[in-house]
Amino acid sequence: MANLVTHPRTLFDKIWDAHVVQPLADGWDLLHIDRHLLHDLSGTAGLRELAERGLAVRNPELTFATPDHAVSSAPGRTGETFPGGAHLYRGLKELTRGSGIRLFDLGEPGQGIVHVMGPELGLVQPGMTLICGDSHTCTHGALGAIAFGVGSSELTHALASQTLVLRRPSTLRVWFDGMPGPGVEAKDLALAMIGQLGASAGNGHAVEYVGDAVSAMDIEQRMTLCNLSIELGARIGLVAPDDKTVAYLRDKPFGPKEEAFAQAAAHWQSLLGDPGARHAQEARVDVSVIAPTLTWGISPEHAMAVDGRVPHPADAAHTAQRQAWQSALDYMDLTPGLPLEGTRVDRVFIGSCTNSRLSDLRHAARLIGKRRVASHVRAWVVPGSENVKRAAQAEGLDQIFRAAGFEWREPGCSMCVAANGEQAAPGERVVSTSNRNFIGRQGPGVRTHLASPASAVAAALTGVISDPRNL
Amino acid sequence: MSMQAFTQLRGVAASLLIDNVDTDLIIRIERLTSLGREALGPWAFESLRYRPDGSEDPGFVLNQAPWRAAPILVAGRNFGCGSSREGAVWALKARGVRCVIAESFGDIFHANCFQNGVLPIRLSAAELTQARSRCLPDAAWHVDLQAQQIVLPDGERLAFKVDPLRRAALLEGLDDISSTHKLLDVITAWQANDRATRPWVWRTQPDPEF
User: Fold this and answer.
1) Do B200 and A125 touch (CB under 8 A)?
2) Which domains does chain A have, with CATH numbers?
3) Across the interface, do A84 and B30 touch by the CB < 8 Å criterion?
4) Which of A130, A261, A466, B136 could lock onto A35 through a cystine, CB 3.0 to 4.6 A?
5) Are A148 and A256 in contact (CB under 8 A)?
6) Could you give all domains of chain B from N- to C-terminal order, each with its CATH number?
7) DSSP for chain B, written as a single string
C-alpha cells in the first residue's frame, strides 16, 4: 500500500503500519495477525464457535496450540486428571486435528504455558503481530513484537480471517533510569513500576520499555517485564530488538535458518523507533531506589518494598483509593503501619508465564542451595514448559528443589489461574511468582502476594515474608 | 452474523464505586469452564455478592432490591481490567447489564463489550461523580446511543462519545466477522505480497526433530 510517511515514527507505529491490510475509519485498521496461539480454555471455545458459524481456519499454518490452563500439573498427569478441564483438553485435540493446526500435546517438547513455549520454539519474532486468547500475550513483546490478548469474539475473527479490526492505541514510553541494586530483579522493577504509575496508567496505550536497565536484561527478564504490561493497564508492551534478541532467536526450531535467518535478522535489527518520534505519554522509573518488591493488597498496584511498612488508608490520595486500600487490608488480613516482613506464609508458588523459565528456575535453585523449606509451608515449582522441565532436570535443578522440600510438577498455568483445581484454601497466604493478586484469584478467600522468584524462595525457606537480600 | 443491537436503554443505574474491578471479580474462571454463557448471570460478582457460607451479602449493591436487575452500572476507574475472558461481558449481560459507565476500562474488556451488544461509556471523573449522585431507587436513566447522550432522572443531560465505527456496529447489531468477510480478497492480496517480502514469517515448518 502506498503510504507516504514523513514524520518520525515509533517502533510500535512502524510494526503496526507494516501490518495494515486495509485502513478502516477514524484511526481503525484491519490488521494482519502473523501468529495465533491457542490454548485449551479459549482456543477450544473459539474453534467450536468458528465451526458453529460454518467457517474454516484461514491460516492453520500460522496457528499453534497447546493445553496449559485447565490441565493438572500433578506428576503423572494426563489431560483427564483434572476432570473439569477434560472436555476442553479433548476438544482442543479434536478441533486442532480437524483444522490442520499444530498441537503440542502433554508430554511432548513444545507443550507448555503459551507465553513460555511460543518464544522458546521461535514462533514469535521481532516485528511480528501475535495474538492469543489470554491477556498475558503482551509477554511476547520482549522480542520486539506487537503481541496482545483478545477475547473470544476477536479470537474467532482472527481464526476466520487472520486479521483483527483494531483502533491504533497511543504509545507510552517508560524509561528505566539507572541500574538495579543487588538482589533486585526484573519482577521487582515491573511491580515497582505498577505501584508507582498505577494499574490503569497504560489504558489505551502500547508501552515501549527503554533505558539501561532494560538493555541490560536478558530476553527472559524482558519477558517478565513485558508480561506485567497488562497489569499496568496496557494490552501491549514491547522492547526494541537488539543483539541479544537476534542471539536468542538463533537455532529456534520454528525460526528461520541460514540464509533466511540472515535476511530476517537484518530486518529485525532495522526495527527501531526514529529519532524524534513522539510518544503520547512518557514516564520515568528510578531503578536505583527499587528494593525487592511484593504486593500487599488485591491489585498489582498495591506494591511495596519488602522492607517497608504496610500503607495506611489515611495516606491514600483520594476517597476511592482509601476505600480500596481498606478493603485490601481487610481481605489480606494485614495491619497498616506494620512491616510486611515476618508475615507468616502458608504456600509458595514458583511458576506462571511471568516467572517459570529456565533462568528463573536456575536462579531459584541457586538461592536455595542446600537449605530446606520451612516445615509449615507447602511449596511448588511448576516449570513453564516441557522443554524447561527437561532442561532443568538435565541440570539437576529438580533434585535441588525436591531435596529442599518443594514439589516438582508438570508444566502448565497451575496455581496462577487456578482453572485446573490447583488452588490454595480459603484464608491461606501465598507468595507467588505469578501476575495477579486479585480477590479469589488463587481460590476463594486466598491471599496472594506477588513476588520475584528470589522473594518466593526467601518466603519458602523462612516460612515468612523475608528480604531475599538476606539469603 | 449479527449480535444484539444497542440503540437505547431505560432503567435504573447501580453505583459500584470500586476502582480496578478485574474480570476475575466479575466472573470466576471455574464458572466459565463449567457453565454456558447464558447461565453465568447468578455468578456475576460472586466474590462480592455471596458470603463464605453462600448467603447473599445485603451490603452489596446488586443484592439490594432497587438494583438487583439494574441494566446500567456506574463503575470507577479501570473497570474490567485483567484477564481477557469475554465471559465477564457474558456474565454481566446474563444479569441484564447492557451499559457500563466508567472513568476508564481495561482495553480487552472494552473491546469485548462491543462484540456483545454491551455499551461501555467513558465519562470524566467530574461527570461520573455527578452521574453517581443520581443512582437512586426507582429513578430511570435513559441512555441513547444514536444521540450519544445520557438523560439522568432529573432531566439533566450528559453527552458521551463512542467511536463512529463501533457506534454504527452497535446500532445495526453487526459484529466484526460479518464486515470483514467482505474484505477477504484484500486479505488474500496482502498475504500474497507478504509471502514475498517477509518469507521467514511464512516458514512455519519446524526442524526435523519436531
Assistant:
1) yes
2) 11-169+242-269 (3.30.499.10), 171-237+274-289 (3.40.1060.10), 293-470 (3.30.499.10)
3) yes
4) A130
5) no
6) 8-174 (3.20.19.10)
7) -B----SEEEE-EEE---SS-BHHHHS-HHHHHHS-GGG-GGGTTHHHHB-TTS-B-TTSGGGSGGGTT-SEEE--SSBTBS---THHHHHHHHTT--EEEES-B-HHHHHHHHTTT-EEEE--HHHHHHHHTT--TT--EEEETTTTEEE-TTS-EEE----HHHHHHHHHTB-HHHHHGGGHHHHHHHHHHHHHH-GGGG-----TT-
Q: For residue A85, give the H/E element and its range.
A: helix A83-99
C-alpha cell at A372: 530446606
Q: H/E element holding A112?
A: none
Q: Do B20 and A199 touch (CB under 8 A)?
A: yes
Q: Do A438 and B22 touch (CB under 8 A)?
A: yes
Residue A59: its pLDDT value, please? 98
Q: Does B200 touch chain A (CB under 8 A)?
A: yes
pLDDT of chain B, 210 residues: tens digit per residue: 568 999 999 999 999 999 999 999 999 999 999 999 999 999 999 999 999 899 999 999 999 999 999 999 999 999 999 999 999 999 999 999 999 999 999 999 999 999 999 999 999 999 999 999 999 999 999 999 999 999 999 999 999 999 999 999 999 998 888 889 889 999 999 999 999 999 999 988 887 777
| Candidate from A164, A253, A444 with C-beta closest to B207 | A253
ipTM of the complex: 0.96
A458 touching B, CB under 8 A?
no
What tens digit of pLDDT does each residue of A60-84 get? Answer: 999 999 999 999 999 999 999 999 9
Tell me which residue of A186, A437, A423 sits closest to A295, measured CA to CA: A437
Which of B76, B89, B180 is closest, CB to CB, to A163? B180
Strand partners, B9: B143
What are the pLDDT digits (tens) for A102-149? 999 999 999 999 999 999 999 999 999 999 999 999 999 999 999 999
* A161 reaches B (C-beta below 8 A): yes
Interchain contact, B85 vs A151, CB within 8 Å = yes
